[in-house]
Every structure is written in structure tokens, then in C-alpha cells.
């Protein structure tokens, strides 16, 4: 890499930025690849005019247009990738007064899919930051309104008085108790006693979750009993009053040594009503914005998913190296850290690390206007939620202004009354919340959409990638869960793609061509299914019917296909390896793109189309983060778990069967009659190798994780219909 720029505060360099060395070679290759794409388009158009296979050529043209568009979005993010370094050790030398207050938002919604102990560990990990404790306020949004989650946080507040001083005295790096006590370390007597305390707490919480209610024996004081009385028989997750409880107060609560103040820990469950829109996670985050403004109004905000615990205690200081830099802070909206995951299988069989989404694309965005927001691990300047840098949009009441200094105690009646008011289910009516201020409504992927809108308003962002992961999260270990999660993301992204704020139209005007092109990559995920279906079925069916749709090896156009195919894949592999990925993980990532394209993306496109035609409605399901012993074992062995019967696996199973038949028939024709069909055989071979887990499931497996028989039989029937139809079509 070559030096790009240094940034100093008060003469001290806090961060540097370097341009990646591969930038120039990538730009040269991009020009060559574009020439190849133009030549291919010419070939298709010429074939349409001169040949008689009009429909076949039209389908190939459509597929290649989509592929060219998606490649262009990737090329935009390869134009100027950068890597940054920051120096938190230089910032911590500053006096405590120079550390701004920090509000942390943690969102959860279902105690059975997102276990309360997991939420508690995430909260404890950020409460234990190497940061002035009395300047940290942790807000936990419980959108399920569960007494089980509330109880877990009450227990976490008690435990934190012992955990926080222990971590800071011993410079513990793993600040999540579950992670620390699961490690195979030799502990001191103090650590052993603390482990017993944690184990007892965990046992109590898990017992409560298993029984489904907080028994009287676990409620130790009258004050707590009064809070639990709020959960009446009429209280449901979709219809209940707001609950805001200060479980720990930095103004009064001290640690076990009685020397240091504790962070604020505040439980928030907004008011819900079946007749009022709640806007899913974006609505919950906006409630936290207002409630935190009423109570602490810290200038810096960290948003976290409940399963994304802190892995580096100096992470907030890393973010401050950018957010407090006077040269950039006036226009800097947020600092995004990459999502990292623990518990992935050796070769990441389901490609759950999303290396391209969370790392490769991010360093590309960072060289333009900065990365997009990914919903977790992001430090915000509170000002970003209130309009463009040059035009502050005031909220409806002065108490919510981003620049207001809170001068009242956290637990005063006036402060808590205001907090309950702004957490009401009808509070946002006739306000700018969700449209001009706060997290933006209009898409199921509120994170990507909101980050995009912030940057369209003129805010910049920074991608911070320290060597030690800042946060670690859990990955879903069921293929069905992954497909459903991806389908939900894809639908939300399609909403963004076809909104008035589409990157193709609004984006180009607001953030420029390259940035808008980069932002187009994810919103148009659904269209990946088009070339996958065309290239996964059309050449193979033509091969089975004795017809060739591609040029022969003697035709110069044959080599153009070879160049574009291998060129794009080689560049993708280099991206993956340069950012720390392995060859095996890259291959699994390619396979999962095939599977996602023929499952999640395909059905997301259908569902979005039906919704647009008012023939269907969207739902929102929380991805399960619970553990299943048999599922975990299969995942660690890198055996695909297809799970219960799901219609989503029908297209990919059909493609797998068609390609296997085409490969066998093509090889027979090649050796028996010397018929030349190299490109068709290459595509079939590529698909067959990628579909090996499907063949294994159909032929060899008998366990409950195999492909359901109904899916296999249905795919076989569809394959038969396709081959018969193809015979009449091609003949």
C-alpha cells in the first residue's frame, strides 16, 4: 500500500489512510473487461438480427445484461479501495473530560429466538469498556416486551458490580462473561469465585426462561415486584404499555469496591398497539433515540444487535480517533466496524461471514464517501439523525434536540415522564420521524436504507477494521434459517431499489455515479436469479436436446466467453484472498451465491412482485440464535442441514438434477459422436460440483437434515416437464 494521508488532533496523529496497491491493476482490468462486455453485447444483438434463434438469444442477452450490471456495481467499489489505521493508545492519554458520553443501543425482540442470557452478555461486554464508566449508558430495547429479558438484565446489573472491576483490574480482553468463562484458562481464586457467581446467575435466568415466567422466589424486593406486576394477563408482545426502567444509575450506583461509578443500564419496551404501525427494528431504534435524548442525550451512539458482543475493550476509543478529529468531524456521520462471527465451521460452509458484503465492499465504499451502515457495530454522531450537515432539522420538541445538554437526574419524575411519552405508539404521528429525522422507514432493511439516506444528505462515514475484531456475533446454523433471513433482506433491498430514493436515480444525483453504482449492488440482489436460471437451465436443456446455444471452440467468440467467465471469477478470488479469506472459503462462498440466487433471491423477487401488485404482504421473522445440539454437530462436520420441508429448495434441486443429466449426456455425446459442446459442458460441470451437497442429500442421507422427499419428487417431476418441453421447443 502507499501512504494516502495522516490526520492529527492537537499535533497527535490519531489515524492514517492508505490506498490499496491493487487499485491501478484493477482499473486497467476494468477497462479491458468493459471492452469484453461491449463485444459480447454486440455479438448478442448481431445474433438477434441475423439468426433464427430469437428467443434463445434474447434470454441469453437478458442474462448477460444483468451480469454486466452486477459486475459494474462491483467494479465501482474496486475503483479506490483504502485501508485505515487508528492509534487509540494516543487518545487514552487525554484527560477524562475529553471523553464524550456514549449511548449504546441494543435491540432484541424474542426471548426464545434471542436468549436473554445472550442479551445480558452483550450488555455486560459493552458496560465493561475501557472508558469512563459513568459516561456509558446502555439502553436495551425489548420489542417483545418480555419479563424474561427484563429479569436477565436485572441479574446482569447485579453481576456487573463484580464483573467490571474484575475486568479492569486484570486487563481482561474478553469482556463477555460467557466467552471468558468458556475459555480454557487457569483462573485465580477471584476468577473462580466470579465464575461460580456467573454460573448461578445463568442457572436462574435459564430456569426462568424454561418455565416461561419469573417466579416469586426470584423477586427479592418490593420495588422489583412492582415492576413485574406490569406484566398482566392483558399484556402481549403486540399490545402493551411502555416500560422504561433504570436498572443501574451512574449517579448513585457504585461497584463492589465502592470506588468507581457504574454505567447506566436502562430497559426500554416501547408501547405497542395492534392498530398502530411500529416499523419493526427501525421503529425500535427511533424510540431509543428519543428515550435516550430525554435521559442522557449523549453525542455518540453505538448500535448493536443483541448477539453481537464486544470483543475489544478499546473499541469506543478507536471510533473517537475519527469522530473527534476536527478536520472531518463536522461531516462525519458514523464509523462502521465489520461484522465478525465466532462459531463458523472450519471452511464456513454456509458463507455466513459475508466477506464480500462486510469487508471487501466496505473498503471499496471507504475510498469513495465511506461504508454503508450494517445495523450493528456502528458508532454514530447523534447529529446525523437530524438532517444534512449544513441544515439541522429540529425535532418536534426541544427536549429531543441533538445539541441539548441534559441537566436533570436520570430518575427524576420529569425525565421518566418524558421518556414514557416519546415511547408511545402514536407519538410519531404528524412528525418527521422515519422520513426526515431518525432511522428511515420504507424498507425491511432499515440499516442499509438509513445509511444510504444519510450519505445522500451529505454525511460521510469511515470503515474501521482493527486486527482484533471489535465485535463478534453468532451465525445461523440451519440452511432454512439462512435462506429466510436472506429472503427478508432481499425483499427490503428491492423496496429500496424501486423507491423514489433508488440508487439508480436519486443516488446518482446525490452521491455521484461510482457511489450510487456501489449502492446498487445489494438492492438488485433479486435479479441474480435471472442469469442463474437462464444459464442453469437453458444451455443444459439444449444439450439434452442436441442443440448448441454457444459458439464452438473454433469460433473467436468462444474465447470471449472464456475470458469474461474466468476473468470475473479470478478477480473475485483475489479480492477474497487479499482480505484474509481462504481458497476453500471462497469456493463455499461461490456455492452459496448459487444456492441463494435460486432460493432466497428468486422467491424474494416473486414475493416483492406480488406485494407490489397488492397480492401479498411482507412479514418479519427474527432469525433464531438458539442452539440445537444435533444441528451444531452437523454444522461442525460441514454437512448441509436442509431442515424441514421448504418450497424454497425446489428450484435449486431442479437445476441440480438437470445439470447432472446434461453432464452425463454431454460426456456421452462427446466420446461417442465427438460432438463439440465445451461451454455447455463447462457450465454443467460447474453447477454439478457446486451442487454436490444436494446430490449427497438425495442419494446418500437418511437423517432429518436431508432434503425432504417431497422436494426431491417435485424437482424430479419439474425436470421431466422441462426436458419434454425443451425437446419440442428446441426441435
TrEMBL record:
SUPFAM superfamilies: Nucleotide-diphospho-sugar transferases
Transmembrane stretches, start-end: 28-49, 55-77, 528-550, 557-578, 593-610, 647-673, 679-698, 710-730
Gene Ontology MF terms in the entry: cellulose synthase (UDP-forming) activity
Gene Ontology biological-process annotations: cell wall organization; cellulose biosynthetic process
Localization per Swiss-Prot or TrEMBL: Golgi apparatus membrane
Protein topology in the membrane: Multi-pass membrane protein
GO CC, one annotated term: Golgi membrane
Keyword match Cell wall biogenesis/degradation: yes
Sequence positions that bind Mn(2+): 281, 305
Protein residues bound to UDP-alpha-D-glucose: 113-114, 143
Catalytic center residues: 143, 447
Keywords associated with the record: Cell wall biogenesis/degradation, Glycosyltransferase, Golgi apparatus, Membrane, Transferase, Transmembrane, Transmembrane helix
Gene3D superfamilies, per database record: Spore Coat Polysaccharide Biosynthesis Protein SpsA, Chain A
Source organism, top-level taxon: Eukaryota
Function (record text): Thought to be a Golgi-localized beta-glycan synthase that polymerize the backbones of noncellulosic polysaccharides (hemicelluloses) of plant cell wall.
Family: Belongs to the glycosyltransferase 2 family. Plant cellulose synthase-like G subfamily.
Entry protein name: Cellulose synthase-like protein G3
Amino acid at each position: 500500500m502507499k501512504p494516502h494521508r495522516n490526520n492529527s488532533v492537537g499535533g497527535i496523529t490519531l489515524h492514517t489512510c492508505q490506498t490499496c496497491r491493487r487499485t491501478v491493476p484493477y482499473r486497467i482490468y476494468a477497462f479491458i473487461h468493459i471492452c469484453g462486455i461491449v463485444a459480447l453485447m454486440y455479438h448478442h444483438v448481431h445474433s438477434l438480427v441475423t439468426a433464427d434463434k430469437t428467443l434463445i438469444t434474447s434470454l441469453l442477452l437478458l442474462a448477460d445484461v444483468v451480469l454486466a450490471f452486477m459486475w459494474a456495481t462491483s467494479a465501482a467499489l474496486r475503483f479506490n479501495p483504502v485501508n485505515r489505521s487508528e492509534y487509540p493508545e494516543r487518545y487514552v492519554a487525554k484527560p477524562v473530560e475529553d471523553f464524550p458520553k456514549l449511548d449504546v443501543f441494543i435491540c432484541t425482540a424474542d426471548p426464545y429466538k434471542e436468549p436473554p442470557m445472550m442479551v445480558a452478555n452483550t450488555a455486560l461486554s459493552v458496560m465493561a469498556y475501557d472508558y469512563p464508566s459513568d459516561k456509558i449508558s446502555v439502553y436495551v430495547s425489548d420489542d417483545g416486551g418480555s419479563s424474561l429479558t427484563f429479569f436477565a438484565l436485572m441479574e446482569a446489573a447485579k453481576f456487573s458490580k463484580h464483573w467490571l472491576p474484575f475486568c479492569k483490574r486484570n486487563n481482561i480482553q474478553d469482556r463477555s462473561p460467557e466467552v471468558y468463562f468458556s475459555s480454557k484458562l487457569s483462573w485465580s481464586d477471584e476468577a473462580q469465585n466470579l465464575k461460580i457467581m456467573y454460573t448461578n446467575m445463568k442457572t436462574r435466568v435459564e430456569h426462568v426462561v424454561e418455565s416461561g415466567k419469573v417466579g416469586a422466589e426470584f423477586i427479592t424486593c418490593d420495588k422489583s415486584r412492582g415492576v413485574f406486576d406490569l406484566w398482566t394477563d392483558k399484556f402481549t408482545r403486540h399490545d402493551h404499555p411502555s416500560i422504561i426502567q433504570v436498572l443501574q444509575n451512574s449517579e448513585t450506583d457504585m461497584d463492589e469496591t465502592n470506588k468507581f461509578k457504574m454505567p447506566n443500564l436502562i430497559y426500554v419496551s416501547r408501547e405497542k398497539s395492534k392498530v398502530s404501525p411500529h416499523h419493526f427494528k427501525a421503529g425500535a431504534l427511533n424510540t431509543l433515540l428519543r428515550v435516550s435524548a430525554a435521559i442522557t442525550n449523549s453525542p455518540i451512539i453505538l448500535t448493536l444487535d443483541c448477539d453481537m458482543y464486544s470483543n475489544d475493550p478499546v473499541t469506543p476509543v478507536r471510533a473517537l480517533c475519527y469522530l473527534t478529529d476536527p478536520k472531518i468531524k463536522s461531516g462525519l456521520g458514523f464509523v462502521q466496524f465489520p461484522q465478525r462471527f465466532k462459531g463458523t465451521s472450519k471452511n464456513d460452509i454456509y458463507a455466513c461471514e459475508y466477506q464480500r458484503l462486510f469487508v471487501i465492499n466496505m473498503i471499496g465504499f471507504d475510498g469513495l464517501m465511506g461504508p454503508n451502515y450494517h445495523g450493528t457495530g456502528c458508532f454514530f454522531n447523534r447529529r446525523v439523525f437530524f438532517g444534512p450537515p449544513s441544515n439541522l432539522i429540529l425535532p418536534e420538541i426541544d427536549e429531543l434536540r441533538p445539541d441539548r445538554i441534559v441537566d436533570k437526574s436520570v430518575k427524576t419524575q420529569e425525565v421518566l415522564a418524558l421518556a414514557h411519552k416519546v415511547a408511545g405508539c402514536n407519538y410519531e404521528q404528524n412528525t418527521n420521524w422515519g422520513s426526515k429525522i431518525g432511522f428511515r422507514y420504507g424498507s425491511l432493511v432499515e440499516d442499509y436504507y438509513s445509511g444510504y439516506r444519510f450519505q445522500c444528505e451529505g454525511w460521510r462515514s469511515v470503515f474501521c477494521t482493527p486486527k482484533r475484531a471489535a465485535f463478534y456475533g453468532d451465525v445461523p446454523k440451519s440452511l432454512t434459517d439462512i435462506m429466510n433471513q436472506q429472503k427478508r433482506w432481499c425483499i427490503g433491498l428491492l423496496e429500496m431499489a424501486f423507491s423514489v430514493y433508488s440508487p439508480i436515480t436519486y443516488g446518482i444525483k446525490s452521491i455521484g455515479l461510482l457511489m450510487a453504482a456501489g449502492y446498487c449492488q445489494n438492492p438488485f440482489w433479486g435479479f441474480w436469479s435471472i442469469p442463474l436460471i437462464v444459464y442453469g437451465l437453458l444451455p443444459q436443456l439444449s444439450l439434452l436436446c442436441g442443440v448448441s446455444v454457444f459458439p464452438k471452440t473454433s469460433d473467436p467468440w468462444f474465447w470471449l466467453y472464456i475470458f469474461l467467465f474466468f476473468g470475473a471469477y479470478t478477480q473475485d478470488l483475489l479480492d477474497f484472498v487479499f482480505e484474509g479469506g481462504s481458497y476453500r472459503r471462497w469456493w463455499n462462498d461461490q456455492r452459496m451465491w448459487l444456492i441463494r440466487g435460486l432460493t432466497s433471491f428468486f422467491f424474494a423477487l416473486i414475493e416483492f412482485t406480488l406485494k407490489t401488485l397488492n397480492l401479498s404482504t411482507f412479514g418479519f421473522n427474527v432469525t433464531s440464535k438458539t442452539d440445537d445440539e444435533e444441528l451444531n454437530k452437523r454444522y461442525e462436520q460441514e454437512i448441509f442441514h436442509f431442515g424441514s420441508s421448504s418450497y424454497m429448495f425446489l428450484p435449486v434441486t431442479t437445476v441440480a438434477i438437470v445439470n447432472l443429466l446434461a453432464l452425463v449426456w454431454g460426456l456421452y455425446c462427446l466420446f461417442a459422436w465427438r460432438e463439440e459442446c465445451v461451454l455447455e459442458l463447462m457450465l454443467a460441470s460447474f453447477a454439478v460440483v457446486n451442487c454436490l451437497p444436494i446430490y449427497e442429500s438425495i442419494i446418500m442421507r437418511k437423517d432429518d437434515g436431508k432434503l425432504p422427499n417431497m422436494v426431491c419428487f417435485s424437482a424430479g417431476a419439474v425436470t421431466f416437464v422441462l426436458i419434454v418441453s425443451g425437446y419440442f421447443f428446441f426441435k
